[in-house]
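To fix ideas, we give here one paired sequence and structure record:
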Amino acid sequence: MATELTWLGHGSWVNLPWGHVKLTPALHSSQLPDGADGGHPGGFLLTLADGKVYFAGDTGLFSDMALIGDAGLDLAVLPIGDLFTMGPDDSLQAIRLLRPRRVAPSHYNTWPAIAQDAAVWADRVRQETPAEPVVVEPGGKILL
């Protein structure tokens, strides 16, 4: 599997035994600790037997998220940590662009600089978007 995924470019896809994977753009720096170029940041649109999932990865908000949402998303996983990725406010705009049925937060609370209250974020999602928020503890599972 690693071989099939290593050659993906933005917008390209591959069929794997468990589903279809498409590489999507992400807005994020991509520099390695030694200063070398780390490649092109990206997210993944997964088409699985149970539904479609968008993992935004480390990204800021971008308007083409609306095009990704045209796939009809069952779940979007969006960063809310701020500082290096989108924060709670931009994630709400991303939800409006993506139009997922459910949404889960990512890239937060791993260190103090990106601390967020996921319960407060989930309340805002319920009040400000039609999506259902899903907050899981590390190691938890989300069923489609």
In short: The chain has a mean pLDDT of 92. Residues 88-98 form the longest helix (11 residues). The two ends are 23 Å apart (CA to CA). DSSP finds four helices and seven strands in the chain.
